[in-house]
């Protein structure tokens, strides 16, 4: 169980980074458009 708990934060970090990147791209598209 410890291994999964340690691997979860990293996976969440990747998801948060991906969501932030997509959100920033959307904002740029809206501003340019």
Q: If you had to describe this structure to a student in words, what would you say it looks like?
A:
This protein is 94% helix and 0% strand. It has one helix and no strands. It has one helix spanning 2-32. The chain is rod-shaped, with a radius of gyration of 15 Å. The protein starts with a helix and ends with a helix. The relative contact order is 0.11. The model has no long low-confidence stretch (mean pLDDT 85). The chain crosses the membrane at residues 12-32.
Key phrases:
33 residues; mainly alpha; 94% helix
Short note summarizing the structure:
With 33 residues, the chain is mainly alpha-helical.
Anisotropy-based shape: rod-shaped
What proportion strand? Answer: under 5%
Terminus-to-terminus distance: 48 Å
Largest sheet: none
User: How many DSSP helices?
Assistant: 1
Helix and strand succession? H
| Radius of gyration, taken over Cα atoms and rounded to an integer in Å | 15 Å
* Strand count: 0
Binned, the helix content reads over 70%
Topology diagram in text:
Elements: H1 2-32
